[in-house]
Design a protein that fits this description.
51 residues, mainly alpha, elongated
Length: 51
């Protein structure tokens, strides 16, 4: 198959590759860090009732 501008398949795959997915253990730590306490959640809802 021919690619535009004389590009090599490996170069195209590298340029348009999706970012790698972090392991599940890392994503769990991130989601736990984003959790709000009940008090913080109440303040946020009071200050921004439309969200």
């Amino acid at each position: 198959m021919t690619y535009p501008f004389g590009a090599v398949r490996a170069e195209l795959e590298k340029a348009f590759a999706l970012p790698s997915v972090p392991p599940a253990s890392e994503s769990n730590r991130v989601s736990r860090a984003r959790e709000l306490s009940e008090s913080d959640r109440a303040v946020a809802l009071f200050e921004h009732p439309d969200h």
